[in-house]
Amino acid sequence: MNLQGIVAVSGKPGLWRALAQNKTGYVLESLDAQKTKLIANLSTAKLAALNEITIFGLEDDIKLTDVFERMKAADSIPTGKEDGKKLREFFYTVAADHDEEKVYASDMKKIITWFNLLKELPLFNEEAPSAPIATEQEILAPEPVKEEVAAPGAEAPKAKSKKAPAKKA
């Protein structure tokens, strides 16, 4: 699932794709059929990237992408208009260790609405791009120090010396 560039904007319904960035914010396009364009000012709008959103869990937070993967495999997905009890029952199947006190029915409705909007898009079935991962040896190994070595028969490189400034008497 490739959710790179997909954001939720506070105060705006639905999901948005980041198209470009300018001095003041981002140019966004809605993922619905209207393909509405929006310029989100960074000083006033709050953007949340879907691939970075987590859900409160009892032990650890649960990544939204993991919940979406489980929702793909689910038999039936309730609509966002169901009552809170049915949504909570469904959420126990896709995010069993979510924190009941911190995850509200409105959060579950939003996640289900987002899933229903995303499942039709081709990016939903794409593999997420992965950055090259450095191995532990590359991280821990210091970079070799390069020394100047004079060729045989050549003069050795002169070391630069700093002279102390002359004292005025």
From TrEMBL:
Residues 135-169 are annotated as: Disordered. Residues 3-50 form the DUF5606 domain. InterPro entries: BVU_3817-like_C_sf, BVU_3817_N_sf, DUF5606, DUF6852. Residues 159-169 have a biased composition (Basic residues). Residues 53-118 form the DUF6852 domain. This is DUF5606 domain-containing protein.
